[in-house]
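Figure 3 (text version): structure tokens given as input.
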């Protein structure tokens, strides 16, 4: 192997500097290129000037090793590179292709006859970062059987960990949980869980692994399913396919787009978590595949409304009630103790609510009724769609759904009113005013149409 023309891909700036120091200490001529390097005295960004000079040295064989951080993945011509060291982890096929492509030019295009790709993998890191044994067991199991008794218990425990915040709110009298308590208990039990892990990059410290569990309920199932199914289209429409990691600011913007497309305007109890949306987006950017979904098949066995029904119909109280509940709590095969995080107070609080529903059903019925009040002086059809979305998301969803349904052909394709472009995903389109509001147009069904995004942008207020 030629001990020159080595290209290293480092994790971050600190990593690159440390590698460069080690090479220099061993007498190996090396340099590093990074995206940002400031002059100590003036604070001026020197990266462009410094990078050009260091790349020139590498091309002219004045140095043997060039270390970089997200600079040389594509676009820079380095024909003499023979060996690439991947000292940074990635699970992005796009980034991996770009990195190894630096050494795969071949002789016909000015490259070398042979190329060497050296990858460094910390396999132990994926094991030591797990936060609980259930998560590790699920990830390590080759075939997950939802009907297996042991697996049911492990999944119940994994779900329990994610529901701790909800359990705490239920027993906290200062927090209004009436909406959650008023729905059927079975609807508070997840139908399943998306489970996956993320690598969170750090500019200065070691990257970390984040374990993600996204609970999916009856109320959020359809929204999550559509979101997951359309992830490839979402990334295409928003030009995200070549991005491996998002900044927090980017995730905020993208999560809002996802909310508008799939979640806003629907009654969801329990509700979704915006952070879960961000985690799924980050996972898809890294892996390019949808996260694994584990179905909670036997959730009916955790429905304590049946226990409440038995107590109510048999008029159990006092000592008899306590003995019955103690026996039920200790039964290993029903996993109630596991589901409620081994905290009997959570169990009893939920059970008391279920009994109260049977004794006083009107209390929950009246408490759960709400109405959205719009001030009389505001004529809703004179508001923008965005304004309507903010003050009455349910009506906004109803109105936009009607516009899209009207644009759909017999084969289920949405159609752009101007270009005739057709697609089955709404993500390619936007709802537009036929007569712009600036010219007196109103926000009502008769004055709304579906346009392809780029055409709507060109149309503006014309």
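Below: residues designed for each position.
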């Amino acid at each position: 192997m030629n001990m020159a023309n080595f290209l290293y891909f480092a994790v971050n700036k600190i990593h690159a500097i440390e590698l460069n120091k080690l090479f220099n200490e061993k007498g190996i001529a090396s340099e590093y290129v990074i995206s940002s390097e400031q002059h100590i005295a003036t604070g001026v960004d020197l990266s462009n000037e410094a990078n050009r000079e260091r790349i020139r040295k590498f091309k002219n064989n004045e140095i043997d090793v060039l270390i970089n951080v997200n600079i040389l993945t594509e676009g820079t011509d380095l024909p003499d590179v023979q060996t690439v060291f991947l000292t940074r982890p990635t699970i992005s096929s796009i980034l991996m292709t770009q990195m190894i492509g630096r050494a795969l030019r071949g002789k016909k295009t000015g490259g070398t006859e042979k190329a060497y790709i050296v990858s460094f993998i910390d396999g132990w890191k994926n094991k030591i970062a797990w936060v609980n044994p259930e998560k590790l067991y699920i990830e390590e199991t080759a075939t997950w059987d939802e009907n297996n008794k042991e697996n049911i218990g492990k999944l119940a425990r994994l779900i329990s960990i994610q529901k701790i915040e909800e359990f705490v709110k239920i027993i906290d009298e200062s927090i209004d949980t009436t909406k959650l308590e008023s729905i059927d208990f079975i609807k508070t039990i997840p139908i399943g869980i998306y489970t996956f892990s993320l690598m969170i990059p750090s500019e200065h410290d070691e990257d970390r692994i984040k374990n993600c569990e996204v609970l999916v309920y009856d109320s959020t199932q359809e929204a999550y399913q559509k979101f997951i199914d359309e992830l490839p289209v979402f990334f295409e429409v928003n030009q995200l396919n070549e991005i491996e990691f998002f900044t927090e600011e980017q995730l905020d913007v993208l999560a809002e787009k996802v909310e508008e497309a799939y979640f806003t305007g629907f009654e969801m109890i329990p509700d979704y978590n915006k952070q879960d949306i961000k985690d799924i987006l980050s996972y898809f950017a890294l892996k390019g595949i949808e996260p694994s979904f584990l179905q909670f098949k036997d959730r009916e066995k955790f429905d304590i409304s049946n226990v409440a029904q038995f107590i109510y119909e048999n008029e159990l109280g006092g000592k008899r009630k306590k003995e019955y509940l103690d026996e039920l709590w200790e039964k290993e095969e029903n996993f109630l103790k596991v589901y409620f995080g081994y905290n009997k107070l959570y169990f009893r609080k939920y059970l008391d609510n279920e009994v109260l529903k049977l004794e006083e059903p009107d209390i929950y019925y009246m408490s759960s009724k709400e109405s959205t009040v719009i001030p009389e002086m505001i004529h809703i059809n004179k508001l923008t769609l965005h304004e309507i979305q903010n003050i009455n998301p349910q009506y906004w969803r109803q109105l936009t759904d009607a516009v899209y349904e009207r644009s759909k052909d017999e084969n289920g394709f949405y159609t752009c009113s101007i270009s005739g472009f057709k697609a089955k995903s709404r993500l390619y389109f936007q709802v537009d005013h036929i007569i712009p509001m600036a010219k007196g147009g109103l926000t009502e069904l008769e004055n709304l149409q579906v346009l392809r995004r780029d055409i709507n942008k060109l149309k503006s207020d014309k």
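The first helix runs from residue 13 to 25.
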